[in-house]
Amino acid sequence: MSAVAASGAAARRRVTSPEPDIAWHVVAMCAGLLLVAVADALARTGHAGGTALFWLGEIVVITPMAALAVTPARSPRRFAVAVGAFAVVTASTRWLYSPARFAFPDELQHLLATQNLLAQGRFGIANPALPIESSYPGLPVVGGLLARLTGLGVEPAGIVVGAACHVGTVLLVAAVLTRLLPDTRAAAVGVVVYAANPGLARFMAFYVYENLALVFASFAVVCALTLPGVADVRRRRALFAAAAVASLATAITHHVTSIVLPLAFGACALWARRSRSAAAARPVVILAVTSGLVTLVWLAAVARGTWAYLQPYTVQLGAARATPQRLRGDGVRAVLPSTPPLWELLLGAAGFVALLVACTWAAVATWRAGRRWHAVLPAVAALGLAVLAAARVLSPRGSELTGRSGPFLYVPVALAVAGLVGAAATAGRRRSVSAAVLVAVVLAGVCISWPVFWERLPGGSPAATVFERGVDARIVAAAEWVGRHTPTGSRVAADDNGLVEVETRAHRDAVPGLADVFYRATLDDRVLGELRSNRVDYVWVDRLLSRAPAADDLYYGGDGVRYTTAPTAAALAKFDAATAVDCVFDNGEIAIYDVRGLVRG
Amino acid sequence: MTTSTLTTRPLVVGWTVVVLAAATVTLSTGGGVSAWAGAVLAAAALSVPGRLGARRLFPDPDDVLPRLGATVALALLVALFVGVVLVALPVTLSRPVVVWTTVVAGAVASLAAGGGAGPARPSRSLRVTPARLAAIAACGALVAATVGVTVVSQRHAPAAREATAMWAVPVSRTASGEVVRVTVESHEQGRAAFVLRLLDGSQVRDLPLVLAAGQQRGVEVTVPAGHDVVCRLVRSDRPRTPVVRQLRWNA
Question: Residue B61: what pLDDT?
Fold first, then answer.
């Protein structure tokens, strides 16, 4: 073969098969997903080995993305395909966990709102499971529309909406990174750092309102970042209108995101002013002001209860103090059958500290280089991480706060870290080391992710009361029975898990704060008084309460008192032989008693 | 030749999908639309305007990430605003109303986003090489295996094998007492034999039941006024199995 022919063949190979390896990156991610699926299946069916396989699957999913991040040459299209595949694969892990049903109380709260909206077809329906949601109808509208449109149930439709939110957010955050970072090399590093946020492992694919708002807000920010560089007037108007509409959608979907968005627009305006001109930044400033006004109007006119809803979180943060349990892992009692392995604690902490140090270093280095405005972003990232670390250790809801704030906070973190190490990561022999470090950082994010370690896989040891989970087949069956066979408007007393199910899946009035009903040894006057004064019709007794360890330090709550000891089996069985009490449901763990004869007699 | 070239025009494909989806709904009206047809319709009605809008906002073909992300965001925005309008209007949120409103809104949004006058869009080429085909096949196989493992493990999870539920609901009240329906549902794997023992004072009545997995059997019991009836369910094919469930009814 002549040299000309050989070079022609090589050129043709380049044309016909550009960057063929990217497809195999995607294959590797799919293989990792299969490993996670097998891990979930093993755990679900009570077999050992699930945890090790889960971590192996996570490594296999992350490694192609990390490898891509340290590869010097990559086209925008190739990068986009990799990010898209990564987003779809990571969104799928939520489906693998619970394919047909919502499994977390937060999702159940939104299930109730969506079902109410579909049943009554109006806004403002009270949601006892999450009162503030009646002021933020965005998610129930989208979930309800998709359910009605497809003929799917609300839960499968909600799972699809959650996955779409996860994929959309990851793609748009990657778009933000490509806009702000110098090249796709740095942007790829940024995507991997963003993947270390504790919400990405599962929370970002939940059917919860902040996830939908996050897509809208990310889209608005991408439009705002694109706007200053566009010369065509029609396109500028289209981008402005899209950003404005997305910010309106954010305002009616989620409180915190709608407060953060004007600040993000403000940061975009500063960037536009510094990188282009004051004139170029003007439309973004208008967007920031308009978005802030829309949020204020919504908060003042419609969502007046928002501050009262958010206040307990700030109070908890202010009054927080460390306990050994929280340091060990998320308020989980020492009596739980498993505590996180030491390596998980160390890796989680090391990854977090590494990001904190990198952001601080980036802020200091940028400041010393005389680029003081540019130092603001890494400084904000470092400060945010420091606050998050304090909340994680000190607050009883540290794990929840970490999971919820991660998708927001890790955008500046990814920008700061990628800006600092983006170029260095692809340098010469250190590439494999850099890739390994990036994989470790993402795994560290999974270690501190929310939901927490003991519910990372489905099945497993039961926990009596669980804020973050607590939904399994026995509870679902009992709740569905209550919804089918008890009169509408029935009032049901239950423990915390039961209360959520009674309200959301059974659509009955859940009656909290009746500790005596569950803790008193006999059916005495105090129990009777509680039942009568609260007009209770049914009592839901979960026998697991007496013998399973409690997560979240809590066996019973709801009336402002935290009951951290288990009720005895005898106390729970006191209704079995009571006169005028019918045991109308028994599935082995959960018994439901009809106490109407007792209360009204 | 190892390479084939597929040329597509997204605008044409998008509109075709919308029309096909609308036709699916039209043909299915009255007979019920399957979830799959509904899913196709939803994808068309929501993602086509999203796709076209994204192309208009980000016309640079290399701006792939914003385009993909904007497609998702715009589809969700269309869903949000169609839903808000529907809820705000005094209409019932029935399936046909939701479906047709979304189709019309999707078509209008598509027209506004991508159907107007503008520069001609270049055709895009999708090059399929043997290596890429092999990778696509491998991805398909892995995804199929993932779905299979998940679905099968769901069916065999211990939670779904929990013993037996036993439910009681009042059916009616007669002169001789209350009629209560006791329902037994088996969640055992395969067939399982039970005995439902009804204890009414000195009387004892045994009802044998053989149930397949997931099968329910209802038994009506008359409870005389002033009496208690206790229903115990035991496994008869496993003599050592104790009482598994117990209900109680006071008339």
Answer: 84
Q: Give the type of residue at A428.
A: G
How far is it, in rounded angstroms, from Cα A372 to Cα A364?
A: 9
Average pLDDT along chain A: 84
Q: State residue A261's pLDDT score.
A: 97
Rounded to 5 degrees, what are φ and ψ at B208? -75, 140
Measuring CA to CA, which residue among B127, B106, B118 is closest to residue B14?
B106
The Cα–Cα gap between B102 and B33 comes to 15
d(CA A227, CA A199): 29
Confidence of residue A202 (pLDDT cuts 50, 70, 90): confident
Nearest CA in chain B to A176: B66
Which amino acid would we find at residue A423? A
Q: Are B163 and B205 in contact (CB under 8 A)?
A: no
Q: Which of residues 107-126 of B touch A (CB under 8 A)?
A: none
Angle of helix B64-88 relative to helix A233-251, nearest 10 degrees?
Answer: 50
Measured CA to CA, the distance from residue A408 to residue B128 in angstroms comes to 38
Residues B62/A76, Cβ–Cβ less than 8 Å: yes
Count of C-beta atoms within a 10 Å radius of residue A119: 12
pLDDT at residue B27 tops 70 = no
Chain A positions in Cβ-Cβ contact with residue B214 (cut-off 8 Å): none
Q: What is the mean predicted confidence (pLDDT) over A577-589?
A: 84
Which has the higher per-residue pLDDT, B15 or A311?
A: A311
C-alpha span between A430 and A423 (Å, rounded): 11
Of the candidates A566, A9, A77, the residue with the CA atom closest to the CA atom of residue B60? A77
Give the CA distances from residue A215 to residues A310, B57, B112, B134, in Å, rounded to whole numbers and listed in that order. 22, 16, 22, 34
Q: What is the mean pLDDT of residues A261-279?
A: 92
Predicted pLDDT of residue A136: 96
CB A155 within 8 A of CB A170: no
CA A105 vs CA A112, A201, A553, A591, B126: distances in Å? 11, 18, 17, 21, 44
pLDDT score recorded for residue B164: 63
Report the range of poorest mean pLDDT among A85-89, A219-223, A235-239, B175-179: B175-179
- Counting residues of chain A whose pLDDT is more than 70, the rounded percentage is 86
The predicted structure's pLDDT at residue B14: 59
Tokens of B180: 């209560």
Report CB contact under 8 Å: A222, B150: no
Instruction: Please state, in angstroms and as integers, the Cα–Cα distance from residue A469 to each residue in A90, A367, A392, A501, A527, following that order.
Output: 20, 45, 19, 11, 29
- Tokens encoding A226: 């694109």
A420-429, A473-482, B30-39: least confident range: B30-39
- Count of CB pairs separated by less than 8 Å, A with B: 266
Q: Which two tokens stand for residue A187?
A: 């942007």
Interface contact B29, partner A, CB < 8 A:
no
Q: How many CB atoms lie within 10 A of CB A155?
A: 23
By mean pLDDT, which of A140-144, B59-63, B158-162 is the weakest? B158-162
Q: How many angstroms separate the CA of residue B12 from the nearest CA in chain A?
A: 22
Amino acid B1 reads: M
CA distance B186 to B194: 9
What is the model's pLDDT at position B131?
Answer: 82
Q: 3-class DSSP state for residue B47?
A: helix
d(CA A47, CA A44): 8
